[in-house]
Amino acid sequence: MTRGSLSRIKEYPPERLTGKDARRLMQQGRRFERPITLRAVAIGLLASAIIAALDPYGLYVIQGSYMTLDYSTPAAVFAFFVLVVVINGSWKRLNPRTALRPAELITIYIMMITACVVPTLGLTAQILPVLAAVTYYANPANSWDRLIHPHLHPLLVPRDKEAIRLFFEGKPGATIPWEVWLPPLLAWMPLILMLYFVMIAVMVIFRRQWMDRERLAFPVTQLPLEMVNEQEPLLRKPLFWLGFALPFAVGSLIALHNYAPAVPAPSVFTRIPIFRETVTWTLRFSFPMLGFFYLANLDALFSLWFFNLLFMVVRGYLNIYGVEIREDLGGAYGTPYIPYKYLGMGAMLMLVATSLWSARAHLSDVVRKSLGMGRDVDDNGEALSYPAAFWGTVLGLLAMSVWIWWSGLPYWATWLYLLFMMVLFFGLTRVVAETGLAEAVAAMIAPVFTVAGFGSTPFGARGLTALGLTWVYSADIRTTVMASSIHGLRLAERTGVRSRGLFWAMMLAIVVSIVASVWVTLLLAYRYGGANLNRWFFLDGPQFPYKWVAGKINNPSEPSVTGWLLTGFGAAVMGFLSAMRQRFVGWPFHPVGFCVGSTWIMDEIWLTCFIAWLLKFLILHFGGLRWFRLSLPFFLGLIVGQYTCNGFWLIMDYLSGAKGNQIFWI
After folding, report:
1. Exposure winner among 22, 352, 415, 439, fewest CB in 10 A?
2. Per-residue pLDDT averaged across 96-124, rounded?
3. Helices in 9-101 by DSSP H: which ranges?
4. Residue 304, H or E segment
5. What's the pLDDT tens digit per position in 179-226?
6. Cα separation of 309 and 598, whole Å?
7. DSSP characters over 98-134
8. According to the model, what pLDDT value does residue 2 have?
9. pLDDT number for residue 13
10. Exposure string for 95-130, b = 16+ CB within 10 A, e = fewer
11. Mean pLDDT calculated for residue range 477-499
12. Nearest residue to 138 via CA among 113, 159, 117
């Protein structure tokens, strides 16, 4: 199909298109659009508010399963299952003509996965405790009042010590002191909203490259597409319900064991010390990750588990021989082994560089269109026009750099930090889109690499403090708006949802989720005491950035020459793997395996990845694509069954008053 031909072909009426029709028309290069309806947006906003409000309650008060931590967005999957099966299913039986159509259901799902980013690791569970922790956990032993407090921008953190104390300790009948919290939260919102806008804009720019030219797999999007497929209904296939039943039964036994210890609880993981007990080998089975992995390419699956085991073996031998590098690189984030942090960062830099190089022709079209010289470049089907996305990205990054400079970071350093931050966001999004690794982290975080690469002295105490505040949005990266938006754009493309309205729907879902999750989290913290709700979010996690800042102020560091060498080596290996993959069709090692294989989350789920690879290899080898398609409902059922079990028992725990009934983590 020639450039610009989309504008010359017939537009099909949306009401006459089925899912199979849509796929056929896409193969023929024909354009079809279904408008975003007001009722779909209204339901999506309601669902976003419910997720943002109930997830903190389930996490902090009920202390049940995690539902919004990862790219897999369990809360959205559970809510979508209830919407499709219970609500819309009943609606169809009562009045089929007014029931929600597949495009409307997908619009709602896109808004829900976008809203899932905000309540926990994406923003709210980070920003509130981190901003308050610098005051609450300051004591004579750590000297934060002397080392850090003088360098904090006064508008960015709450200052009332009594209000902060009640935030962590709680008091029956306490109300939210909005006069304490609103000023810093309002000061942070321009940065946060600009960041989210830039994330969506970047994905709009790369959508066509990743979907039409490189044809990435996007395994995470397969489930909702199958759930709204009216030609071959997923919910009518026995294998789906068999897959659904397995994790639901296992999870329910675990839940019942917490109610009645006499009920046997299956164990889905064990840990084995190896290499003279210097390394812990984790054997964990995850039902939903088995489902997501099954949708990925075989070479990506093989590389993920292979490189994870390779990294573990090398680390074990280095431990035995006493080879180690000691450096303060921010503690628990990414990979626990310092050399692998640098290797992983180098690999991520090269992953992004090769992605940009592969997209150079498309990016040239985008730039020409944005400069008014590319009239032949068609952007009618994008969520934003290319000029809006391009200039929005440029101006958004410029505005973010000014904000971060205003917070205390030297201006020259803001661009380095923003570069490394966007590399990690972009690279992780690429990894998830390509492999289905719905639980992923980077080997290193942006503020730490910025300081490690250039030494702490040039930043000064004020700059280091400003970098410490960036932990709010760029440290524990297990979910991002960037990943949710590209998956949303993929779903919109496959179902013909009109994209221009979709951008505003996603932004509205973000705003609603921020308001609801901040309100509920503050309410629960002042009622129960944050320190009593969740150890990581209110005790351990919020102290990490300030421990790192204080450590760098007390012990200034020089640029890490060893770190740069390891970073370069990681980039070189990644470049070699990428070149070999492009040159040789049968090359077995996918570069993403080296990029994230050393991270702690791969240590946890490597076994599930191996099982998925083995099962898919055997099915394709002996049965071909026909067996793969026939078996697919079973693996999709594993995902839905686990997340439905999580949601079901959260409801049961609320009704019974039970606490700590955590069924699922990874």
Report:
1. 415
2. 93
3. 19-27, 38-60, 74-81, 88-94
4. helix 298-320
5. 999 999 999 999 999 999 999 999 999 999 999 899 998 999 999 999
6. 9
7. GSPPHHHHHHHHHHHHHHTTIIIIITHHHHHHHHHHH
8. 37
9. 36
10. eeeebbbbbbbbbbbbbbbbbbbbbbbbbbbbbbbb
11. 89
12. 159
